[in-house]
Amino acid sequence: MARVLPALFLLLILISSGCTSDTGKTVEQTKLTLYEPEPSQELQPEQSKVDAREDFEEFESNASVENSSVPEETPEPAESMSQCPDSCDDKTCVTSSCSRQTGYKCVYQPITPCCGNSICDEGESHSSCQSDCAAEETACTLQCGACQVLDSSACSCGEKGCEAGDGCCPQGCDFAADSDCPKPDKCSSDSECDDSDSCTSDSCSGQPKDCLHEPIAGCSSGDGCCPAGCSFQVDEDCPRPSLIFSEIYYNAPGTDTDHEWIEVYNNGTIGVDITKWRFEEGGTQHKIVNASDAVAVAPGKYAIIADDYNVFLDDYPDFHGLLFDSAFTSGLSNTGELFILLTGKDGDLSDLIIYNSTWGGDGSGFSLEKMDLSGPNTEENWKESSVEKGTPGQSNNIVA
Q1: Which of these, 52, 207, 298, 393, has the minimum number of CB atoms within 10 Å of its CB?
Q2: Which residues of the chain have a pLDDT value below 50?
Q3: Can you list the domains of the chain with their CATH numbers?
Q4: pTM to 2 decimals?
Q5: Angstrom distance (rounded) from CA 283 to CA 352
Q6: How many C-alpha atoms does 346 have within 13 Å on its Cβ side?
C-alpha cells in the first residue's frame, strides 16, 4: 500500500494537467477517489498489485471517453495580437491600412505619382513638382532691347552697364560715365547764342542743346546780311561799291590831246572791278579797259583813267598804281563839263561832278584836286594842286 499511493498521486497530477486546454477551458475531470481499505481488511501483496492495475486501466478508459466528447478549439491569439496598433507610422507617398485581414499589421500601398519621393514619376513635371523633376531645357527666344542683355538661363532681359562705345546709354548712366550718353546742355535759349554776325541764324537746339550758327545763303534785303555771291543790286543789305572823282587833269600846257586823265578813289568798304563800270562824259558812256595787272580798286586806293595809257606812262614814268584806259569824247572840255561814274551799263550812279575852269588847273600845268574826299563836289571843295602835273595815284596835297 505504501508503494501504491505515490503512484496514484503522480497519475492524478498527469491527468489533471492533460485535461486543461491551451484556450484556458478546463475539460471536466474524472474524479478519482482514493481510499484505503478498512483497517480490518488487509490486502495481500499480490492482490494489491492486481487491484491497482485494474483501477488505473478503468481511469484511463473513462478519461479517454470524456476527452473524445469535447471538440478541439483553435487557440485564440494573445491579447497583444488581437488588435491594430494605435496608428501606423505614416510614410511619404503611401497609404496605410490595418485590419483583421492583415493580421492586425500595418500594410502600406505606394501612391503614384507622388511629389516628394525624389522620383520624377510618370505624370509629374518640373512645373508640378520641382523637388522631383528637373527643369526642361528649352531654347530661349526672348528678344532684348538695344540697351539690354539676355540671361539665357532665366530667359530674361537685364540692363546693360555704363560702357562707352556700345552706342547705348542705359538708365542711370550719364556722359561722365558713358560717352554714349548725351552731353550736358550748353545753352537754354536762342538769345544766349547771338554771335553778332548778321549773316548767321543763331539758335539753341540739338541734344544736348548747343548753339548753332547756320549761315544765311539767300540774298534777302532787310536781314542785315549780304551773303557771299550777293550784291547791292539784289540785296540792299550788301554794301554799295563806291568810287568818287578825286583829281582831274583836264588842260595840260600846250597840246593836251591824249595827255588828259581822271583819278578815282574807292571810299567804300569793298573792292570794285572798275572794268565793269562805265565812265560817262560829253553825254557818252565809255568803257574802262584794264591797262595794269589788277582790275579791282581796293577800299582806300586810287586808280587812273587815262585818255591814252601809253602817253600817260610816258608822262609819268615813275607811276606804279592802277591804270585804266578809256576814250574821251574829243578830249576833256577845257572850260568844264559833267562827269558821271556808273556801276555798269545803265547801272547805278556812283559819283557825279560838274567842274569849271574857274576852279583852277586851266592850262597851268597843275591838276584840280578834291580837298575833302568825303565832302561834296562843289567849288569850295576843289582847288588847284600845288604840285606840277598833279599827284596821280597818290594822296592829294591840297586838303581842307
Answers
A1: 207
A2: 4, 14-37, 39-43, 65, 68-74, 76-80
A3: 85-133 (no CATH), 149-181 (no CATH), 188-238 (no CATH), 243-388 (2.60.40)
A4: 0.49
A5: 13
A6: 0
